[in-house]
Design goal:
Helix content is 5%, strand content 55%. By secondary structure, it is mainly β.
Length: 322
């Protein structure tokens, strides 16, 4: 009986000590897209030179969000796991970076200060972790359901969008103190800052679905309303032009907005229930959750193509493979 007890303890020790899990990485020297899936634990790799799907592989975890740390290493959160994860796409392994708990959503890594910010929807906190020591250096209590980050480099502030509390707050990354907070559209989603205007999309109140972008001043005053499609939930600015791309998953469309004139200039249909957008070079990539596809648009010609993938495509990151 005693031997069985020690064998059980030894087995538990082995399981708890196995923090690193291997996964398959693509064999290519070209830049490639890393696509997470939220209906099945998988990762899809796509060659960005040819748009060829290299392979779809088993992923140890479902992934909410990836954030680049260094080289080919990425931090990640999972809706089914209680730790911040570290993925290495060169060596092909994932390990626990920092044990926390479930309910983690967005991640922001501030390289100049080696600080990692993690949104915690279960405890309504922002965890701040020193990347080199993996130690928690601050826990910032915030409003209900902090879901999305946006970093503004000029003011060196991190913006935190709250889905349930319908508010936006700012954190000084040097002091980790809250500097401002103001109310925004109900059930907000998607944020972009341009020329002292904070653009925010979202679902709107229950029963009154939203079809506008709302522009707020830096102090929180509503200064612009721009009509787009139904439920604009993902925004992506183009650093090479004055355009903002808006994904509306209520009418399955993408809208191109001129940020100077504050007008919609181009639209295009995409797949069913688009949820995430990324831009690399001249191409716009949109993941369509319900259609299990990627829409790829050329931002100059607006020509498009559809790539079918495994079910539940969600976040996309680009690995330049340098």
């Amino acid at each position: 009986m005693k031997n069985m007890f020690f064998l059980l303890l030894f087995s538990i020790f082995l399981i708890s000590g196995c923090q690193s899990v291997s996964f398959e990485v693509p064999k290519t020297e070209n830049p490639y897209l890393i696509l997470s899936h939220v209906k099945d634990p998988k990762i899809t790799y796509m060659d960005l030179s040819t748009y060829e799907i290299l392979n779809t592989v088993d992923n140890p975890y479902l992934i909410n969000r990836f954030e680049k740390l260094r080289g080919q290493q990425y931090l990640a959160t999972s809706p089914t796991h209680d730790s911040l994860l570290l993925y290495d796409f060169e060596e092909g392994f994932v390990e626990n970076f920092k044990s926390l708990h479930k309910g983690l959503t967005d991640i922001y890594y501030h390289a100049p200060l080696n600080q990692i910010y993690i949104a915690d929807t279960e405890h309504n906190k922002i965890h701040v972790i020193q990347s080199d020591t993996r130690e928690t250096i601050a826990e910032i209590s915030v409003n209900q359901h902090p879901a999305e980050f946006y970093y503004e480099s000029e003011s060196e502030e991190l913006y935190v969008l709250h889905t349930t509390a319908h508010s936006l707050l700012t954190i000084d990354v040097h002091t980790n103190q809250i500097t401002n907070e103001f109310p925004v559209i109900e059930r907000p989603s998607g944020i972009y800052i341009d020329r002292e205007i904070i653009w925010i999309g979202g679902h709107g109140p229950l029963g009154e679905l939203n079809n506008k972008l709302y522009g707020y001043s830096m102090s929180g005053e509503l200064v612009h309303e721009l009509e787009v499609g139904l439920m604009p939930i993902a925004l992506h600015g183009d650093t090479e032009s004055d355009h903002l791309y808006v994904v509306c998953h209520g009418d399955h469309m993408i809208y191109q907005v001129d940020l100077v004139t504050k007008e919609v200039v181009t639209t295009s249909p995409v797949g069913q229930n688009p949820n995430y957008i990324n831009i690399y070079g001249d191409s716009i990539y949109i993941s369509n959750l319900d259609e299990s596809s990627l829409s790829i648009l050329n931002k100059k010609t607006w020509q498009s193509k559809t790539i079918h993938v495994d079910q539940g495509p969600y976040q996309m990151i680009v690995e330049e493979n340098q």
